[in-house]
Amino acid sequence: MDGFRADYLLRNITPYLGKMRRYGTHAPYMRAQYPTKTFTNHYTIVTGLYPESHGIIDNLMYDEVFRATFRISSSEARNARWWGGEPLWNTVEQQGLKAATYFWPGSDVDIQGMLPSYYYQYDGSVPYEDRIDQALQWLELPQSERPSLLITYFDQPDLAGHIEGPDSDAVNKELMRVDKMIGRLMDGLHARNLSDCVNVVVVADHGMTPTSCDRVVYLEDLMDISPIYVPRDGTLMRLTRSFRAPESYVWDPDGVVKNLTCVDDHFMPYTKQAGLPKRLHYANNRRIEDVVCTVEDEWLFARLRSFSNCDGGEHGYDNEFRNMSALFIAYGPAFHQGVEVEPFGNIELYNMFSDLLGVTPAPNNGTRGSLNHLLRQPRPIPPQEDGLDSTMTCSFPDTDSDYNSILAATMPGCSCNVAQWRTYDQNFNLTNSEVSQYQQLHLPTGTPQNMYTSDYCVLTASNYVTSFSQHYAMPTWTAYTLDQTTQGLSSEIADCLRTDVRLPAGQAASCSEYENTTLSMGFLYPPSLSADLTGQMEALVMSNVVPQHRGFKEGIWNFTMSLVASWAQMYQGVHVVTGPIFDYNFDGLRDNVTAQYMRFVEDTTTGMPIRIPLPTHFFVTVTRCDGGSLVSTDRCPRWQVVSFILPHADSIPTCMTPREYLSMNVARVKDVELLTGLTFYRDLPVTDAIRLKTHLPEAQDLWAWA
């Protein structure tokens, strides 16, 4: 049902859907993918792929390789070259079953050289009743001809929402109309004695928000638009160099973003390579222009002041906005009865549909088993791959001679004004029993597993545990548990940093390597989280250091760490994992440090890069025990998580508060895993781990702000 916003169901004018909701399985809402457009999300539902992955990045788009424009009403929309991935009907047909579709976007296109066994070219004039009746007739076919998958599409209430707005009588009228079609379907199943044989899933592609010509930002008021190409006006604006621009015009995406940032409070510009929140998954496709502008809910962005299509309703906004939430209800023998589940993203549907049909899904962006809790008899979840064991040896020196040799080789450039600083190194000389005790404290949900290299070692201290990578010459993750007695950030000891004697000489970056750079030495475990000297000295070592822009460290990083400390006080403690991310090709996956596009910290005296790679982002995951229980696996009945992927920029936009910036950059733990090559929650039951990994908190429901 196109444009059926989730809360339309609460208007109590859709009795058949209401009955399905009461007696079936439903979610308060289903999260659409960005941009919350029709073709993008319909195709995501049947492929399990983000729009950037399947290629339908908007209802209107230009492909510079094809030198062609895709419009949903044009012949190009039926050209298979635009459609990536494997739609569900192809998955079904390839594995010996039959599929039938009635007007689903893409189903009349020979994607992969295939079409469903039964399909129709789109014709919006066909009555809804005919579509339902055809579906019922397909179910009456002999078993050898009967489709196992039937899909149909209604263009309402979307059309009424666009014209009259989501709060209009016209929308209510269409809600009642499509509800009657559900009644027609269910009555037809009952008449054929199929009610207990057929699973019915009702979904929407996106929601709808009210718009007005009084709430429009005009690009021509903000910049010279003559050399700029803008595919469309509305809720999503993408900018690039126009092919009509004079040869002398130099296209500078970073400069455009800089000039547009904070000139108006109702939109925010980003380059797709940097800054655009990772949770949007809207960068890795050539059809996405260089600059992407997100727009405030209920506002529109237009190229020219002559734009007039602004009163009524729209969609396409940030998928975190509640007005963009979509309907999900399921009823049938495979689903639980009378159950409400947590909201989830529509990329998870394809795997569930495949499991219901008994077919093997094609590779996709969803997570197998993430919707198993909706099903009475779910299929087994594929086992997780094991991480790679460490091949590095990192231990406290056996003798004073070894200790002094390591210091002699690695301390140049480091200094510490704390008397007898060497004595604090003894805090790293732990017994096996102490290592086990501290790891149990700081890794309550399991040690993050490294899936791409064995070139690391796990270093344990009383206040934190870290995984140090020779590959990156820095820690790749640091984990720690803060209890409710945490007091917040204290003053950090200045002018005191030393090598970590547990690391072989030359593994970690040296203090001197940072001397001629513009970067600060940041800490994954902030020394300022410790109020006493011993705790701070434990953190003031190079194995805890990552390169950070000064503004990033002193700004959003310290703000986030202060917030984490306050959460520890509120929630009886929290478990934290932080680390660097490298994604210079902006594909949402971990970069290889040897890739040509990787950037490294630069020596300002020579202008040459040094061996330390420069992170594009930093992640922070914070897990707590629901209901106020202590952070411990044996005492925690249910975990909750919030995570962030923070762009590694020297500052945040001046028109955004740190809270707004954090809320914009919430992320799933699954996204952190993809961007780091790590896996989390290995000691939790697999269903709990999947729930945490695929959870994306809503900005408005973020944990309490201190």
From TrEMBL:
Q: Which residues form the ENPP1-3/EXOG-like endonuclease/phosphodiesterase domain?
A: 461-687
UniProt cross-references to Pfam families, sorted A to Z? Endonuclease_NS, Phosphodiest
**This protein's record includes keyword Signal:** no
Give the UniProt keywords, A-Z: Glycoprotein, Hydrolase
> Quick check: keyword Iron in the entry?
no
- Specify the superkingdom: Eukaryota
Give the SUPFAM superfamilies listed for this entry: Alkaline phosphatase-like, His-Me finger endonucleases
Q: Which InterPro entries match?
A: Alkaline_phosphatase_core_sf, DNA/RNA_non-sp_Endonuclease_sf, Endo_G_ENPP1-like_dom, ENPP1-3/EXOG-like_nuc-like, His-Me_finger_sf, Phosphodiest/P_Trfase
- The name of this protein is Venom phosphodiesterase 2-like
Q: What's the encoding gene here?
A: LOC118410112
